[in-house]
Hints:
The protein is of the alpha/beta class. The chain has helices at residues 14-24, 44-51, 67-80, 97-101, 126-135, 170-200; strands spanning 3-9, 31-38, 56-58, 85-88, 107-111, 139-146, 156-163.
Amino acid sequence: MKTRIAVLVSGGGTNLQALIDARDRGELPHGELALVVSNKEGAYALERAEKAGIPAVVCQRAKGEPRGDFEARLLAILSGAKIDMIILAGFMAILSADFVSRYPERIINIHPSLIPSFCGEGYYGLRVHRAALDYGVKVTGATVHFVNEVPDGGRIIAQKAVDIMPDDTPETLQRRVMEQAEWILLPRAAEAVAKELGMGE
Ligand code: GAR
């Protein structure tokens, strides 16, 4: 039995695409990309999922909706699809301690820096790369980690360093970190965790 994976997204979904491409190359033998959930309507990641034949749904937090209500809807979707493992792939919302306690060591996240640098609440997307450039570090990278109740604070699974170039902008740096680190690390970590979970069942 393959580990049933839900990929949670908010935007372009290039990391989702890396997972799909790995699956298509036979590099995700212990995992099934069973569901994509976007918390943003119209996210391009939804089209990527459809093209890849993966069921895709939108679960958006309504304005003023308590986080607990949003998470209850999300949990219902995940348990309805019998999901064993969750991948946060550019998912721009922080999940509560109550939510993550339902999937202990079963949620992984990709973060575009070398944790513990440039991480935690408020550090997401281009902001992470802007912070690295503002600080003046010469090396950054990406981290895949388990998700616990501390934003970007769970046990680290894999990291990869990427050099910063003198003329980098947040956009050029984001692209290099994706190409040289994120798209390689995430599918490998997904397979490793899916395999581990499959053995425990
Ligand atoms: C990626 O760089 C991912 O690491 C980052 O957002 C981007 C999403 O791109 N995630 C975070 O910053 C989480 N804190 P994608 O939608 O093309 O995969």
